[in-house]
# Entry
Amino acid sequence: MDGDEKFWTLTKLTEYTESLGLSYELASILSAVVLLSCLLLVSILAYFIAKNLIINIASKVVKKTKNTWDDILLEEKVFDYFAYFGPAIIIHLLVGQALGEFYEWISLIRSATYIYMIITSVLIINALLNALYKISKSSKKVTSSRGIKSYIQVVKILVITIAFFLILAILLNKKVGTIFAGLGAFVAVLMFIFQDTIKGFISSLQLSANDMVRIGDWISMPKYGADGDVVDISLHTIKIQNWDKTISTIPTTALVQDSFTNWRGMVESGGRRIARSVYIDISSIKFCTAEMLEKFKKIEILENYIDTKLSEIEQYNKDHNVDSLTLVNGRKLTNIGTFRIYLEKYLRKNPNISSDMTLLVRQLEPTERGLPIQIYCFSKVQAWADYENIQGDIFDHILSIASEFDLRIFQNPSGSDFLKLKE
# Structure
């Protein structure tokens, strides 16, 4: 095909325009503008045809499948962006015939189409990444997600950076390698600008590699006033919905540099720890008398224990010829020891307390406030309100029942105590 055949349309239109009395130069420019306008109209028409065609086909295919991921792709307009290539391809292929020997215009418009297609490619990749994030969130394995959003954000930054250098290479008419080679100082500036992004990315890698935080984890970080569930993990920040429904935003780097508590182990264990103490007035601790033992026998959960323990003690004292008339000789039951056994049996009978996990009723080191008796066990229920109710019921019972063992709960003197003393 020679030049006349190649530019036949432009030549004919130029001849016609020139016949109207215009100069050859003006007729050529006017003809090129008219043909270029027609080309733009055709490309716009091609866009709408391609868009309707692609969307209709994609919608029909998506409706026939039971998968959710293709619905998300349609929702994120991934298929819509492919229609954007239509106008660029048409202009790129036909602009030479429309503009004829206006080579500078042809080069400029083709460069613009390259830039347009690069931007369109970025939009498609961005939509695909958004769809990938939504697919991961809708997956049943979302609780094991280790912050995929941060990696998606890094990929987006890389894609935009590559697109930027490609566009720069087109504008400067240079090879990409040449652009990179001459931008050493610029890269250093970019690293300085994106230092927070780089730190956030490294922190995200550390959090992921060590499995420190997942979406859905309950974490506590008093330094930032955060105590609640992790709802979002991004490149720069982690969002926590506190129990009062407020949102705390914590830098990703802070979770690597500072200490925090992750309650995931408690959640996965199926129980929630109860570790609380009551303080017993030491002056109320004593050996059990016969009357006290008869009273304790009437307590259902202690009946077998008292009988067994008394038989054991009696046999021991007999074998060792112990003079039982003196209190300090031999073995004897105490009210505090019997109280501990009662609490342990009470907890084991409680249907809300896990019997498969650690269950202790133990003495801690005495203090100026008395002898601490610690309840250490695990509630089967993890929900905060229910857990607090279970814990409250247990200690309501403990505080009420202590007097039945001739024990007094210690508390510092209050105003009413001083009034009684005055009277």
